[in-house]
Specification:
The chain has 28 helices and 29 strands. By secondary structure, the protein is α/β, with parallel strands linked by helices. The model has no long low-confidence stretch (mean pLDDT 94).
Length: 849
């Protein structure tokens, strides 16, 4: 049979419980345990078999079961409570955003991401970037932000992982039937379905837009599996991160350019545009094209308007992880586009040019940086790394002043907190703790929670994880066709009393999943200790094209089946959100050992500590900020090695030492009641310090206050009087760039010597402006302490105008007052200055005296 269409046929839901269908189409249920329990009550086995998908559950449940539930007082009470909570959430106008920014409630924020990790039943995510995007959307909903998400609804999602008997990862792609998930066609204001198109070489490609409601906010996801696309284009966006550079650039054109067109078709006019990673950078080009075509701006003017209200978040601390395309590919895909911007080929290429070892490339990160006014990394350390990586775009600016800031990632508390712990927190943190979960004082009472109560809850979660893991291993072995003994063995694998280490994440080589096995005999002794048994649970996927990453999986899996390691090490196949929730709440310790500084942030350890599971981690990513010496463990040195093998050796030795000498002894140190009091102090401190600081609520509030609101206001400012500011700013920048090579600055001040704290340094500067005005520039002294050739704790001090010299140069003076001892250095510089610049160093132009 040739299938022409597929419809989801639902049983008739009795009127009394008819809103089960409505609730299923709002992912609010995905972070409210009571709503998930409601669906599970309908049919527990079907709930599990459906992948916790209420749409599939309602489609397949027996009508007789629904009729019985419609007259079941216990179910109806539960149903009414859930719907009451849902209605209160959706209808309230008393949100944080409405209270904090009442004048901006109607200003839409557009959030573009290649992937969204919302729930295991919607496999359109691959890892941390997607999970972060999903958590961002959920928290935006909780806070009442007027945010819309834009991305892809991949028909084949991300791959399902199958591990062979030899430990080889195999990828399979299952068709995601849109009729079985919480997606509905997006509609234009006049009620028609939204279909957009973009130009690719020699053809147009069309994409249908779907809508997924995430609490209060909509997510608009595109799919190219529609007529009249050719077969190859129908699978263009079939699955995440698949194919070659041709597929990748095509997907990113659909995401960026098509995403803008989708929002226009929906009647939306965002006041702020957020590019979550460089995949969406083409949206800046499309916005500029609109302004050139419709507002009559030049590209330089349009660029100012576009950048004013655009935010770019970079997640990648290694150059190879940033998408870059060969110029020949850009020629093919954009040769009819740059003319619409009023640019020639060279001007267009210069927007994103990055010189690689193999030649010049068109970098999506460079494009995003050039077409946005605000940029950030995802932890303080990653901000430092990013400023070093991209300093070449601001060649006259010191690394510390490169305009890339940082906002450290967080996690959505309601999604990742185990319900059993949520109940404990309800009892011990006060009735309103969920409303103030980003405030440190909310979590102070955790220190007075009775040890036995917290330990008992943790042991329950650990038992649940072990039961889950045993069943998972059993099903894996059944699929492999193993014998009865191996199947029975799965039922007794893992010891509830053993110290259990969790390691679950993407199997990229820099995350070093096998570091702990560097000395096999040493780790074997640790695992087989008769009085202090240790076990490890691994999970994670490698990209299908990442052969070294797949080799790491194979190494772990093979060890898990070897004598001496079998039963102490397990690998759980097909890692997803459901498995992650169980792992971060059920293990005793969360292990993280990337090559520093390659972990941009990481969030799995934040989820673990929210659930009272301490971290043992390299001081990389978020842990540099989170570790306080009492809430977990750090190992390895805070430096970078030239030799990766030496680094691995040093880090492995440090890991063994901290496990053997500190962590494992503390875990097994019990009192007369069998309670590990010292371990519980670490657990409580992890919860107290990490839960508020690394909550998604703190993160989204920070994005809103530091980036979204200033960007929206700048965007409004720029559009006034038919983009008068954009026009004048573009003209001013052009004038500055033309004159800058002729601008000169000299200074007089002490070259070297000794002074005491409290004595001042008088400095005079002389500035030749080459036709510019004094108000076009800022002259300032920069000073701080010299540490091995690096300026530390630097400060800037504006220099005051002090008249003109006979030759026409301008004179400036200042007095610097050192506040502490040490090797003190200073310098004088001039930079462009304009009240509309979003950052002092936006133009990257500096002259030093």
């Amino acid at each position: 049979m040739k299938i022409l269409g597929r419809m989801a046929v639902f049983p008739v839901i009795p009127t009394r419980i008819s809103r089960l269908h409505e609730l299923a189409y709002n992912l609010w249920w995905s972070w409210h345990a009571e709503a998930q329990q409601l669906y599970q009550t309908i049919d527990t086995e079907l709930w599990q078999r459906s992948g916790h998908n209420p749409v599939r559950l309602l489609r397949e449940v027996a009508p007789e079961r629904l009729n019985a539930l419609a007259s079941d007082p216990t179910f109806l009470k539960h149903y009414d409570q859930v719907l009451q909570a849902f209605d209160a959430y959706m209808k309230t106008e008393q949100t944080w955003f409405a209270h904090t920014y009442p004048a901006l409630r109607g200003q839409t924020i557009a959030y573009f991401s290649m992937e969204f990790g919302l729930h295991e039943s919607l496999p359109i995510y691959s890892g941390g970037l997607g999970i972060l995007s999903g958590d961002h959307c959920k928290e935006a909903s909780d806070l009442g932000l007027p945010l819309v998400g834009v991305g892809f609804l991949y028909p084949q999602g991300y791959f399902s992982q199958r591990i062979t008997a030899d430990g080889v990862q195999e990828a399979s792609y299952d068709k995601l039937r849109f009729s079985e998930v919480s997606a509905t066609p997006a509609l234009t204001p006049d009620g028609s379905e939204v279909v957009i198109n973009v130009d690719l070489p020699g053809r147009k490609v069309y994409a249908k837009v779907w809508k997924i409601q995430v609490g209060r906010i909509p997510l608009y996801l595109m799919d190219t599996d529609v007529a009249p696309n050719a077969p190859n284009d129908r699978v263009l966006a079939a699955h995440l991160y698949g194919g070659d550079h041709e597929i990748r650039i095509s997907q990113e054109i659909v995401l960026g350019i098509g995403g803008v067109r989708a929002l226009r078709a929906l009647g939306l006019k965002p006041a702020l545009w957020h590019m979550n990673e460089g995949h969406a950078a083409f949206l800046g080009l499309e916005r500029a094209r609109e302004l050139v075509a419709e507002a009559g701006l030049t590209f330089a003017e349009a660029r100012e308007a576009v950048a004013a209200n655009a935010v770019f978040t970079t997640h990648t601390p290694v150059p190879a992880g940033n998408d870059a395309f060969g110029l020949d590919l850009i020629d093919r895909y954009f040769n009819s586009y740059w003319g619409q911007l009023g640019l020639n080929r060279d001007q267009f290429m210069e927007l994103a040019r990055q010189d690689q070892s193999w030649g010049p490339s068109f970098s999506m990160t460079v494009l995003a940086l050039n077409l946005s006014g605000q940029h950030n990394g995802v932890s303080k350390l990653h901000g430092d790394v990013s400023r070093r990586m991209w300093q070449f775009l601001w060649p006259g600016v010191d690394i510390d002043e490169v305009p890339i800031g940082s906002i450290t990632n967080g996690v959505h508390t309601e999604t990742w907190l185990a319900p059993a712990l949520g109940t404990l927190y309800d009892r011990r943190l006060g009735p309103a703790w969920r409303e103030h979960l980003d405030q440190p004082e909310t979590w102070e009472p955790i220190t007075s929670v009775p040890d036995q109560e917290l330990w008992q809850t943790h042991c329950q979660l650990k038992t649940a994880l072990i039961d889950y893991a045993r069943e998972h291993i059993k099903q894996h072995r059944l699929r492999l066709g193993e014998g009865a003994r191996q199947i029975e063995e799965a039922a007794t694998m893992l010891d509830p009393n053993a110290f259990t280490i969790g390691f679950a994440r993407r199997f990229a080589t820099y995350k070093r999943a096998t570091l702990i096995f560097r000395d096999l005999e040493r780790i074997r002794r640790l695992l087989q200790s008769p009085d202090r048994p240790v076990q490890m649970i691994f999970a994670g996927k490698a990209h299908p094209a990442d052969e070294p990453g797949k080799a790491l999986i194979q190494q772990v899996y093979r060890l898990s089946r070897q004598p001496g390691f079998a039963g102490h090490i397990v690998f759980l196949e097909d890692y997803d959100i459901d498995m992650a929730r169980k792992l971060v709440s059920g293990v005793d310790l969360w292990l993280n050992n990337p090559i520093r500084p390659y972990e941009a942030s990481g969030t799995s350890g934040q989820k673990a500590s929210l659930n009272g599971v301490p971290n043992c981690s390299i001081l990389d990513g978020w842990w540099v900020e989170g570790y306080n010496g009492q809430n977990g463990w750090a190992f390895g040195e805070q430096r970078e090695y030239q030799n990766s093998d030496l680094q691995a050796e040093a880090d492995a030795l440090a890991l063994y030492a901290v496990l053997e000498q500190e962590i494992i002894p503390l875990f097994f140190e019990r009192d007369a009641q069998g309670i590990p009091r010292g371990w519980l102090r670490i657990m409580k401190e992890a919860i107290r310090t990490i839960a508020p600081q690394f909550s998604m609520r703190r993160m989204v509030k920070e994005y809103t206050g530091r980036l979204y609101i200033p960007g929206e206001r700048q965007g409004q400012f720029v559009t006034q009087d038919h983009y008068a500011l954009a026009r004048s700013l573009a003209a001013w920048k052009q004038q500055i760039r033309q004159a800058w090579p002729q601008v000169g600055i000299w200074a007089n001040g002490p070259i070297e010597g000794q002074i005491a704290i409290g004595q001042s340094i008088d400095v005079t500067a002389y500035l030749r402006l080459a036709g510019l005005r004094p108000e076009d520039v800022q002259v300032e002294a920069v000073y701080g302490h010299d540490e091995d050739g690096h300026l530390r704790n630097s400060s800037t001090q504006p220099m005051e105008p002090d008249g003109q010299e006979n030759d026409g140069s301008y004179r400036y003076r200042t007095r610097i007052l050192p506040q502490s001892g040490g090797s003190f250095v200073y310098g004088v510089r001039v930079r462009p200055a304009h009240p509309a610049l979003l950052d002092h160093h936006e133009m990257g132009l500096v002259h030093w005296a």
